[in-house]
Amino acid sequence: MDERIPSGAAIVVGMPRVLLIEDDQAVRDGLSMALGGRGHAVDAVATGEEGLARLASRPPDIVVLDLMLPGLDGFEVCRRIRAAGDLPIIMLTARNEDIDVVAGLAAGADDYVVKPARAQVLEARIRAVLRRSGQPAPSLPTPAEIERHGDLGIDRAGLTVTKGDKPVALAPTELRLLLELTQVPGRVLSRQYLLESVWEHGYFGDSRVVDACVQRLRAKIEDDSSAPVYVQTVRGFGYRFGPL
Q1: What is the pTM of this model?
Q2: Coil, helix or strand for 146?
């Protein structure tokens, strides 16, 4: 019997699978080759519609998504992916403009890279996001393992969060941010510190990534995200976790 491996299928156990959604063929081919040479199995498509269909048939470990797609644009693709689950997303944006970056992060992206994307930078961001999301499967917590902060319950071992008696679904980066902020409630953490500890960005980080993630986290854990009780802004410094 001639059992053929489908084109593009990963044959190395544990090889991270990247779904690249990029309409520019030269960029798509270049990044596919570069990432493939760095140990990733790349599944590349040209449109948002193809990308969403491929998600259902061959789920990846991470999505690299161009924002300026024809037809269904990257913002809408990002929103649909995020609404369906916590799959990590890195967006590609052609210009380092506030409106594009902020809108993409607000749509649910975990990180972004400005085009022309250097393969080593994109690959480093992919590995960092995968490290953040590669958590062990949650285990059933005992009451003693659950931290209580107001009506929030945080189980660090099981990586679960509840509000009241209901589970809160957090994307991996949102969970990492919450865990970092709650290490020492009341302590002010700068955006740069959060970039280095949560996003592993170091000197080339962008604080807008932090601000966008804070907004998404507030929308899920606060009663009123416009008047936050838990994740509080300290103007000119950063963020701290309450309630105080």
Answers
A1: 0.64
A2: strand
For 30-81, what is the HEC assignment?
HHHHHHHHCCCEEEEECCHHHHHHHHHHCCCCEEEEECCCCCCCHHHHHHHH
Q: With 0-12 CB in 10 A as exposed, 13-18 as middle and 19+ as buried, what is 179?
A: middle
CA dihedral (189, 190, 192, 195) in degrees, to 10, reads 40
CB 91 within 8 A of CB 126: no
Q: What is the CA radius of gyration of the chain?
A: 19
Tokens, residue 1? 């019997």
Would strands 41-45 and 17-21 be described as parallel, antiparallel, or unpaired? parallel
Tell me what pLDDT residue 192 has.
86
Q: How confident is the model over 90-113, as pLDDT tens digits?
A: 999 876 666 777 888 888 888 888
CA angle 210, 214, 220 (to 5 degrees): 150
